[in-house]
Design a protein that fits this description.
The complex is a heterotrimer of chains A (494), B (310) and C (319). Chain A has 494 residues and is mainly α. Chain A contains 17 helices and 10 strands. Helix content of chain A is 59%, strand content 7%. A two-stranded antiparallel ribbon of chain A has the order 1-4. A two-stranded antiparallel sheet of chain A has the order 2-3. The longest helix of chain A is centred in the C-terminal third of the chain and has 32 residues. Chain A is globular and about 90 Å long. Chain B has 2 domains: 67 residues; 203 residues, Cytochrome c-like domain (Cytochrome Bc1 Complex, Chain D, domain 2), CATH 1.10.760.10. Chain B has a two-stranded antiparallel ribbon. Chain B has a two-stranded antiparallel sheet with strand order 3-4. Chain C has 319 residues and is α+β, with helices and mostly antiparallel strands. In chain C, helix 2 runs antiparallel to helix 3. The two termini of chain C are 69 Å apart. In chain C, 46% of the residues are buried. Classes of the chains: A mainly alpha (494), B mainly alpha (310), C alpha+beta (319). Chains B and C meet through helix 1, helix 8 and helix 11 of B and helix 3, strand 4 and strand 7 of C.
């Protein structure tokens, strides 16, 4: 039956030839190769929950009187976008779960991208021939951040509205074209002609996701075409990949992982409140709440804007608001461009144009590892700087002291991180047997009364034996009568 | 085959461990969410917090002189035809002044002076501030203050309700008719929607939209409103303690003040935490930590289980 | 490439690579089945929970247990019960062979390149036409989006199309967001109120924060404001500043009465109320523009003119 249908398909599409090599594609077993899948599967959850949300969300700034079931809002004039989001939360069954799961999935999506990217970076997996895939990945990160911001802005609540206001001002700060850009996008001076929510909606649910899906296909396509990298180890060379085949082993694991990712996201969606917009209320441009921050993946920009000194350039009848333009336009531009260009930067330094399919250990590339640590220190610094007020309140410190601390911490932390990491890498490289389990030292006394030490024999489990890797077998011989009697249950040879 | 043996040992441990871990996290979250509940989605009337003057603090003496409890209710019925503000003012009984003076002399006069006219650089002049101002500072436990160099913080009050009002009555007696009076706030029938709007416009900029409070300039901070009583909310609006602006009746009417008090005590103190644990009401900072540490963290543990570690 | 893969001899069923990774497959299979059954029950429970319309927590819990069980079972199946391997796959060169490359390059530079060279003018015209087409398509795509910002404060602008204009004029009545006229004795000392020009309640660029700094009568000397603020812009102890932060345009709604500071809740710029809202700390570069105000004979508060500069954050055209 299966044979028949497969033949039917192959008669028409000829999938057998390429399809089998796809089924035999080898995935390395190391756990760190699964990190990108967290992003992939949270993206799938995002698509699914997102479709649910579009069925109820009304992308309109039109004002209506709220009549839903949340009492403190009844009778208030709110936008349809806000009313429908509150309605999604209280009046659509399972709506709150879907909404919260969508938001958690976005937070996890970008978090997983960051972790995945750190793995790729620190192990040098972006080197030739995978530079293009690195670039595709960084583009997906940027689009993910953008789409996260767009989605966060849609409910038209007080917190997200403040975010839109800030985005407007950031656009306005770009020299020459800034006010034109802002006017065009918003349909006029802030808050614009009521077009921003419909426009953000189209970008959020159609345009950006479509590009993301395209890039995702390219990312995975390149992965299949170029095959995985792998850590050095027994039987692993530059010209092979060792691990589990796509079908059936990897497919089972990864399908299970899709379920696990969904379980965590929906679990959070039900048990951890996120963005309770009914508590925030409708956005009005003259209202503000203290302690408003963007979502975590935008926090680093907010932090950069906070610690920036008030340097405005004025002259020749023009103004360049450097206090906005530098931290909110130039800084992220610089960071993303460094990320995009990193394979090039490293090539420029090393002039290494060999193929690399075996990964580096971070300690063996101290300069790259230190540079990565410096970048992380910088981003963590500005990220934490975005919550100066919350920290000042939590630790009962004066707000200005906390801000001054970050004004010094943010530029200094990367430098310190660089040198410390560099030093640690060198120390680790020089140390013998690092990363291996220590063996016991046996001290014994010889008959002459002399004490000698000797290492004990390897413990069981240390230096375990591994099977020699073999190609995925084409056919399995089941003609052996003795084996065939096992009837589906494989005999275990031990 | 020692490799497979090792694998299966870790596997046997890893699978249930991951399961237990995830279930434990979920159940922890579930349990802690159980405590906070507000029926804002279903109830159609405002939560009723009638504060009979003096508004009863948990654990304080409930025996109220009849003169006090009778008077406001009488005035309430008298005013109810014309005044629906829900806030009633009444003079504190003259009998409070004498014990109040004794309490003041023992607990307050070392800084504020026996005539409550303050000491330069140490303590402000209290004359003319009114009984409501004194009631706010003493009933929130901010006064008496041990360390004058830092902003007073809310703590359990040192005096019971009657003693507090006695001190207030004494200070009021020094400048009769001046300053903020002690209100009787009846939040039943308040307009929560109006309170919500007014709170967002006037209060959220400092106290945050969830009433959690936050740090201000010069080492000051806006306190959390999660323990405030309706009386204290109205007293704070009217007297503007510390760095807080003063909101007079020309700015926020009595009715509006009552609506704000009802919103603070009814909604903010019992937020509708539909959708799980409230994560402290500090917005995306807390959410980011949960998303990264619990969300991505758990999934990385799953990766650790699925994949090889060698 | 598939030829050499077809060549290895068939594996036998007892090949160690094909054995499950666990020592006790039967037990692991039972565990995996158990997990999947738990998952199944979770999903059934979800449907039941939805049916009886229980809380969000129950829905999430049952759904998560369902997916968790199914996930654990599937992963256990893949990790412990499938061929343990390891298997290997050979990589192939990414680049094509030299002759293929040469032919490809030749096709572009030779065949096409020569043709392009020979008809250089044609190519030029095609490129220019294509470029103009892109431009033509982009023009409505961008220009239709919104109005052009008005050049400067030349009285043609409205708050909708100009960054320089507000609706504050000399004599404009000062009202609250509800449209209530603000009277001179509405605020107490230390009081603060968000106000708008009459008819433009709730408008973003027009928002003004009105503060009463002192209790002064009409004949008292004015409350002194240090430069760059104007003492003459205040009236009877009142001052009014634009509520739009000069940093990123958040409403500067946080008034600290004792220290006489306005704080922006977004990025903590701190403005001194007594000196024309000069920024004392934080990223804001300019003082909040001060609005001249006055009181008419009936005690109504009115604007005594518009702002003398653009309100809100900086931009290129701002002089």
């Amino acid at each position: 039956m299966i044979d028949k249908s497969l033949n039917w398909i192959d008669d028409r599409l000829g999938v057998a030839k390429g399809g089998r090599s796809f089924l035999d594609k080898i995935f390395p077993d190391h756990w760190s190769f699964m990190l990108g899948e967290i992003a992939l599967y949270s993206f799938i959850v995002l698509l699914g929950t997102g479709v649910f949300l579009t069925l109820y969300f009304v992308p309109s700034a039109h004002e209506i009187v709220y009549h839903g079931s949340y009492v403190p809002l009844r009778g208030q004039k709110v936008s349809e976008a806000y009313a429908s989001t509150v309605g999604l939360s209280f009046d659509v069954r399972s709506g709150l779960l879907m909404r919260q799961a969508h938001h958690w999935a976005a937070d996890i999506f970008l978090g997983a991208i960051a972790v995945h990217m750190a793995r790729v970076f620190f192990t040098g997996a972006f080197r030739k021939p995978r530079e293009l895939n690195w670039v595709v990945g960084v583009l997906m990160l940027i689009l993910g951040v953008v789409n996260g911001f767009l989605g966060y802005s849609l409910p038209d609540d007080l917190v997200s509205g403040t975010g839109i206001r800030i985005a407007y001002s950031i656009m306005e700060s770009i020299p020459l074209v800034g006010s034109y850009l802002a006017f065009f996008l918003f349909g006029g001076n802030y808050p614009g002609s009521g077009v921003i929510i419909p426009r953000f909606f189209v970008l959020h649910v159609l345009i950006v996701p479509a590009i993301l899906v395209g890039l995702l296909a390219a990312h995975l396509g390149l992965l299949v075409k170029q095959k995985h990298t792998q850590f050095p180890g027994k039987g692993k060379t530059e010209s092979n990949v060792v691990g589990s085949p796509m079908f059936p082993t990897f497919m089972a694991k990864t399908t299970g992982f899709l379920f696990m990712t969904s379980a965590v996201i929906f679990g959070l969606g039900g048990f951890a409140q996120i963005n309770p917009i009914w508590q925030f209320g409708q956005y009005e441009p003259y209202q503000i709440s203290y302690a408003v921050q963007p979502d975590w993946y935008m926090g680093w920009l907010d932090g950069a804007a906070r610690i920036m000194p008030s340097w405005e350039w004025v002259g020749y009848g023009h103004t360049i608001p450097l206090e906005i333009f530098l931290p909110a336009v130039i800084f992220p531009g610089l960071i993303f461009n460094i990320l995009l260009a990193w394979p090039l930067i490293e090539w420029y330094k090393t002039k290494d144009s060999n193929y690399h399919n075996l990964l580096d250990r971070p300690r063996d590339r101290p300069k790259r590892t230190a540079a990565g640590a410096a970048m992380l220190a910088l981003l963590f610094g500005v990220f934490f700087a975005s919550s100066t007020d919350v920290m000042a309140n939590f630790f009962q410190l004066p707000l200005m002291d906390v801000l001054w601390f970050f004004r010094f911490f943010v530029p200094l932390a990367p430098i310190v991180a660089y040198f410390i990491t560099f030093k640690i890498c060198h120390e680790m490289r020089d140390a013998e047997n690092i990363g291996k389990r220590k063996r016991a030292l046996i001290v014994s006394r010889t008959t002459d009364g002399e004490y000698v030490t000797a290492e004990s024999a390897p413990r069981p489990g240390d230096g375990h034996e591994e099977l020699e890797a073999m190609p995925v077998p084409t056919f399995i011989d089941t003609t052996d009568p003795e084996l065939a009697t096992a009837a589906g249950v494989r005999r275990v040879i031990r | 085959m020692s490799k497979t043996a090792r694998r299966s040992v870790t596997a046997r441990l890893a699978a249930p461990a991951a399961l237990v871990g995830v279930v434990a996290v979920f159940s922890f979250v579930a349990f802690s969410s159980g405590s906070a509940q507000a029926d804002t989605t279903t109830s159609t009337t405002a939560p009723v917090t009638v504060s009979t003057l003096p508004d009863a603090q948990p654990g304080t003496v409930q025996a109220v002189p009849t003169a006090v409890s009778a008077e406001p209710s009488a005035s309430a019925t008298a005013d109810s035809a014309s005044n629906h503000s829900g806030i009633y003012y009444t003079d504190l009984p003259a009998s409070f002044i004498k014990p109040g003076q004794a309490l003041f002399a023992a607990n307050c006069s070392s800084c504020h002076g026996s005539e409550a006219n303050g000491k330069a650089g140490v303590a402000p002049n209290l004359q003319g501030l009114g009984a409501g101002t004194v009631d706010f500072w003493v009933s929130t436990g901010r006064m008496p203050l041990a360390n004058t160099s830092v902003q007073a913080i809310r703590k359990p009050p040192r005096f019971d309700r009657i003693q507090t009002l006695e001190i207030a009555a004494f200070v009021q007696s020094l400048t009769p008719g001046q300053g903020t009076q002690v209100p009787l706030v009846r939040t039943a029938g308040a307009d929560l929607e109006n309170g919500n709007t007014l709170f967002t416009l006037n209060c959220a900029a400092c106290h945050t939209i969830s009433g959690a409070g936050d740090a201000l300039a010069e080492g000051a901070y806006a306190p959390s409103l999660h323990l405030a009583t309706p009386t204290q909310v109205v007293e704070a609006i009217r007297s503007g303690p510390g760095n807080m602006p003063h909101f007079g009746p020309g700015n926020i009417t009595n009715t509006e003040a009552r609506d704000i008090a009802a919103y603070v005590t009814g909604v903010l103190q019992h937020p509708n935490d539909a959708g799980g644990v409230g994560l402290g009401g500090i917005g995306p900072v807390g959410e980011g930590f949960v998303g990264l540490l619990i969300g991505v963290g758990l999934l990385m543990l799953v990766c650790f289980w699925i994949g090889d570690r060698a | 490439m598939s030829d050499n893969k077809l060549s290895p001899p068939p594996a036998t069923l007892d090949d160690p690579h094909l054995q499950p990774a666990t020592k006790n497959p039967q037990r692991m299979q039972n565990l995996a089945i158990l997990a999947m059954v738990v998952g199944m029950l979770g999903f059934i429970a979800f449907i039941w929970v939805y049916w009886i319309n229980a809380s969000n927590e129950w829905e999430a819990g049952t759904l998560a247990v369902g997916m968790l069980g199914l996930g654990v079972g599937t992963i256990a199946w893949g990790k412990y019960l499938m061929p343990q391997g390891p298997f290997v796959e050979e990589r192939h060169d990414f680049h094509s062979s030299e002759p293929e490359r040469a032919a490809f390059n030749a096709a572009i530079t030779g065949r096409g390149g020569l043709e392009v060279k020979r008809r250089g003018l044609l190519l030029g015209v095609f490129a220019v036409a294509g470029g103009i087409m892109t431009l033509a398509l982009a023009v409505p795509g961008i220009r239709s989006l919104g109005p052009k910002p008005a050049k400067s404060d030349d009285n043609q602008g409205s708050t909708e199309n100009s960054l320089f204009t507000t609706n504050w004029k000399k004599g404009t009545k000062i009202v609250t967001v509800d449209g209530r006229q603000v009277m001179v004795d509405d605020l107490e000392v230390g009081g603060v109120l968000t106000v708008f020009p009459q008819g433009f309640e709730g408008s973003s660029p027009d928002q003004v924060i009105l503060i009463r700094l002192a209790q002064l009568g009409p004949n008292d000397p004015p409350y002194p404001i240090s430069p760059p603020g104007h003492t003459s812009y205040g009236v009877q102890g009142y001052v009014a500043y634009s509520k739009l932060c000069t940093h990123l345009g958040c409403p500067v709604g946080l008034y600290q009465e004792r220290t006489q500071q306005l704080v922006c809740p977004c990025h903590q710029s701190i403005f001194n109320v007594n000196s024309g809202a000069i920024p004392e700390f934080g990223p804001a570069p300019r003082p909040l523009p001060q609005l001249p105000i006055t009181v008419d004979a009936t005690g109504q508060m009115r604007a005594n003119g518009g702002f003398d500069q653009a309100v809100g954050p900086g931009f290129w055209e701002r002089p």
